[in-house]
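Reviewers of the previous submission asked for a worked example of the structure-prediction workflow described in the proposal, so we include one complete record here. The input consisted solely of the amino acid sequence. No template or homolog information was supplied to the procedure at any stage.
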Amino acid sequence: MQTSTLFTLRLLIPFALGYWLSYLFRVINAVVAPDIMAELGISAATLGFVSSAYFLTFAACQIPLGILLDRYQTRDVASALLLFAAAGSLVFALAESSLTLWLGRGLIGIGVSACLMAAFKCYTSWLKREQLPAINGLQLTSGGLGALSATAPIEFALTFTDWRGIFIATAILSLMIALLVRILIPRTQARKSSDSILTQLRQTWAVVKTPAFYQLAPASMLSQSVFIAVQSLWAGLWLQQVSQLTPANAAAVLFVAAAGMVAGFLLLGFITGRLNRLGVSTPSISFIGMACFTLTLLWIQLGPDHAGLMVWGLFGFFGTSGTLMFAGLSQQFPIEISARVSTSLNLGIFLGAFLVQWGMGAVVGLWPSEDGQQYPSSAFRWALGGATLLQIAALGWYLWCRLRAAAQASNAANT
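From that input alone, the workflow returned the following structure tokens.
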């Protein structure tokens, strides 16, 4: 275990840059989507399908990624995958059809699938337990900075180049960050598992079947799926086509939402630590945050003309609440399978994000458009309303599991 500041920075910088890039890719379509729709003539339903390809391939990588990270060198896995992100960004930049866009977006999802999980695995391997909350918070904050970078800064960059030029630049950035990971992240002691991959898959399935996982994880999965799907695409179109904001003003609102997300990553972890010492559990804090997130979704829909910067800032802040479940779950399993616990949860989150983002596009596409790009506000209201019902279902599942567990404990105590 290492404790020096320089060594900690050596671990943090390449992984923080990787997660910054991951979030930049995740959110950027919320700003560039109108330009892509106009140039290639694609519908809202097709756009939702293309954009969600990132989440589908990202989710598909999670189970094998957990095994790879528990089995091989973290730096080898992470740096190799970032090459896929570079290739995908280039394919996306050169695309002339929705199919090629989907392929590029899918390769990007594969390429950045390890940016957060590899960081968590590396920090667990090299740092002391008491260092983990702080460095995990900084790692998550770097993702928030990526979301910030994908809003107003990208809108500003579009005054100098087009969306294709931006994706060529991100391809170069992907290669540079892959090189940094390869150079700066040290090798760990050889500890390759003697278990077969089939055995490790069975262990992963055993994790998913435990009450600790299936009672806590679904609430986090659905909440994060809705937040990611809305923030990374549909929030931008909502602001332009429902709230009637200009692209520049919509990007400014998205910037505030991303800033709220950064604040959420920073402050919710700190608040949770304080409340834990007072006896309040992490899942309970996460539930309260997810309930507040639901209220902001309702506020945005019921009063879009009055949902100003503060509401969108709260949307970003409380949208991070579901990530607190990572800490609650990881503490209940052995460190040897820690990557598989986190990646199993991540699988559910990003598979859900794929379905929600694609599904919202399909709902919007049920309404006729004026020119292939403009849809009536009612289309977006129905789409976001459906996503909000999923969020409410997440809260209902958590409450039902908690009440059932309390009833079982009471019955056991009385017998």
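Residues 86 and 173 are 8 Å apart (CA to CA). We consider this example representative of the routine output the project will generate in years two and three.
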